[in-house]
């Protein structure tokens, strides 16, 4: 199944890494010339290669026959049949124009996405948590349209009466955890999970979670204990304006080979044939794929050849660190010797184990 995290198909070969990685420093030193004195600067440029496998389809194409709780079976069936299928707030297939999702059905490959076709007005429950020690039991009450009255509660939260988060229904447990992040960040430096925290808490959007909730009813608990902290519970019902999406699907390939070609065109940034590199440069690639390879500037002839083959010129030309850090250079997809690799270039200390 398709997965957004780049680590899904990474092959790090720990046993081989122990053998080859242990020689990385010696290899780097042997490949650099005698003129590599960097004046005592221990900054190095580290290259790592993580294997993606021999087929991009395994990573970037969904097979609905595999179990995936995020897969929208009804939406996929509708686009194949040319029927209209809409969702409110949630994008079908969780895809965007810049990051489409691909799927296969009976040997046909589809590019899946969505378009906004309407706007919906709705009222949803919002859960906010307040640290009873931090906020002085001052409640923020809100009306259905989201405006706050700023009223103070004046009541004292009884920590002994607090419900344990683990005892709540699954939807409430998720809501408490996310609202906890918002409460923890409130009034302090730091961030909250983007895309999860909304309006300073958690917004209930699933009807089944609302129906099963123990926190949302008027007679619900006034406080909840989460990770040894007792929070005062505040629930409000607020107005939201949400997009309505229509699922889209386009046939893009009728064979695995054509789909692979499409993915190569989309994903691959550099292609290197073994015959294009010297023996020393091939050793750089091999070491980078088994734990990482690093050198200090000025780089060896072999390392420069690899960087050029990756089209990472900012690491070679001009003010190296300034130019490289000022661009989006430094990562991409490589095809080498029949396999695909995610590569990453980063400056660091020679003693940095990353």
Describe this structure in words.
By secondary structure, the protein is α+β, with helices and mostly antiparallel strands. The chain contains 10 helices and 13 strands. It has helices spanning 14-21, 24-31, 57-60, 73-81, 170-185, 207-212, 256-267, 279-288, 301-309, 320-325, and strands spanning 43-53, 61-62, 86-88, 101-105, 108-131, 163-164, 202-203, 223-226, 229-253, 270-272, 293-295, 331-336, 339-349. The strands form 2 sheets. Strands 2, 3, 4, 5, 6, 7, 8 and 9 form an 8-stranded mixed sheet that branches. A hairpin with a 2-residue loop joins strand 12 (331-336) and strand 13 (339-349). Helix 2 runs antiparallel to helix 8 (279-288) and helix 8 crosses helix 9. The protein is flat.
Task: Jot down its keywords.
single chain, 354 residues, alpha+beta, eight-stranded mixed β-sheet, five-stranded mixed β-sheet, 13 strands, 25% helix, 29% strand
The largest pleated sheet is described as: 8 strands, mixed
- Based on Cα principal axes, name the global outline: flat
Overall helicity? 10-25%
Order of helices and strands: HHEHEHEEEEHEHEEHEHEHHEE
Give me the count of strands. Answer: 13
How large is the count of helical segments? 10
Regions with pLDDT < 50 over 5+ consecutive residues? Answer: 1-40, 135-156
């Amino acid at each position: 199944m398709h997965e957004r995290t780049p680590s899904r198909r990474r092959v790090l070969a720990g046993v081989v890494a122990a053998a080859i990685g242990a020689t990385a420093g010696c290899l780097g030193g042997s490949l650099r010339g005698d003129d590599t004195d960097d004046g005592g600067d221990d900054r190095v440029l580290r290259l790592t290669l993580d294997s993606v496998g021999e087929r991009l389809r395994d990573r970037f194409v969904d097979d609905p026959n595999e179990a995936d709780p995020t897969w929208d079976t009804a939406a996929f069936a509708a686009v194949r049949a040319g029927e209209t299928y809409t969702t409110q707030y949630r994008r079908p297939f969780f895809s965007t124009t810049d990051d489409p999702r691909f799927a296969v059905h009976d040997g046909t490959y589809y590019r899946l996405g969505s378009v906004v076709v309407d706007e919906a007005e709705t009222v949803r429950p919002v859960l906010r948590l307040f640290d009873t020690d931090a906020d002085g039991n001052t409640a923020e009450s809100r009306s259905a349209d989201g405006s706050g009255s700023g009223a103070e509660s004046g009541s004292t939260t009884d920590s002994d009466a607090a419900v344990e988060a683990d005892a709540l229904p699954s939807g409430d447990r998720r809501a408490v955890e996310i609202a906890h992040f918002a409460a923890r960040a409130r009034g302090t430096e730091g961030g909250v999970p983007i895309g999860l925290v909304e309006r300073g808490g958690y917004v209930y959007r699933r009807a089944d979670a609302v129906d099963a909730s123990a926190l949302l009813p008027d007679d619900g608990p006034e406080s909840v204990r989460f990770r040894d902290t007792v929070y005062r519970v505040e629930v409000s019902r607020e107005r939201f304006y949400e997009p309505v999406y229509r699922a889209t699907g386009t046939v893009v390939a009728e064979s695995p080979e054509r789909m692979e070609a499409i993915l190569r065109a989309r994903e691959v940034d550099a292609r290197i044939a073994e015959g294009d590199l010297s023996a020393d440069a091939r050793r750089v690639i091999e070491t980078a794929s088994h734990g990482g390879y690093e050198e200090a500037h000025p780089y060896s002839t072999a390392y420069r050849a690899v960087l050029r083959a990756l089209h990472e010129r900012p690491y070679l030309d001009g003010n190296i660190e300034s130019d490289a850090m000022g661009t989006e250079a430094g990562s991409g997809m490589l095809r080498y010797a029949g396999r695909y690799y995610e590569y990453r270039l980063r400056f660091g200390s020679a003693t940095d184990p990353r």
